[in-house]
Please model this.
Amino acid sequence: QQCLALAEKQVEQLTTVVEKTQQQQRQLIRRQLERAKSLVDKKPEEAAAIRHSIVTLFGDKSWAADLVGQAQAAASPPAPGP
Model:
C-alpha cells in the first residue's frame, strides 16, 4: 500500500513538471514564431529556418500542434487571389 501511495504521489509530481515544461516550451515556440515573423522581410532564409526548426523539433508533439501548424502555414506561399 505504501509503495502504491508513493508511486501515485510521484506520478502527480511528474505530471505537474511535464505540464510546466510544456507551457515553457510553448512560450519559447511563440517567441520563435514572432522572431521569424519579424525577420521575414529582411532575412527570409533565417525566418524559414526558424519555422523549419519548429516543425522538425515539435512536429510530433500533440501539445504543440497548433504552433507547429502556424509555422507550417507561415512557410506556405499565399494562395492566389481572384
The chain has a mean pLDDT of 93. The first helix runs from residue 2 to 39. Helices lie at 2-39, 44-58, 65-75.
